[in-house]
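During the reporting period, our protein records have gained a structure token line. A sample record is set out beneath this paragraph:
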Amino acid sequence: MTRDEARAILEQMTTSESLLRHARTVELVMEAYANKLGENTEEWAIAGLLHDADYQAYPEQHPNVIVNQLREKGEERIAHAISAHYTHWDVPYETTLDKALIACDEITGFIVACAQVRPQRLEGLGAKSVMKKLKTSGFAASVDREEVRIGAELFGVDLKEHIDFIIGVLQQHQSELQLEPLEQDEA
């Protein structure tokens, strides 16, 4: 599967700008980690891009719709990683790809939320500020802090270093991402 094919699948099921941006940010972070670790960058990027592809169109069936589509296309490794990207689904983490996706999903969304409440967005954002916001349960309340912790642990990364890495990746794509300020009720 190519990234263009993956984007087409995503855009068939997802119209929400925030979900499309989340897919793109996780795609970028997964690709960067694959580069860093010498893994398959296309596979990792596609896993990041498609991990929530069916979330808007099929919320009650998420992630089964996208997982089944990927399996039909012979993309078992990506399908398995997506099927395992939430610890409460009790799917085993068999590969580094599986662990990377769980480690990158929630925290990337949280970092974007942190950037969106800052006038300078990603510029100057650091792990210390993000870690402080993680302790504020009312901020980006939908982000599961336990998933963030478990993800980093499974992936074998220090959370602060992980956050700094993700911020660095997102900063490289800041103009493309065009992070808009969050509304007060979203923060």
Observations:
- DSSP finds ten helices and no strands in the chain.
- The mean pLDDT is 95.
- The two ends are 36 Å apart (CA to CA).
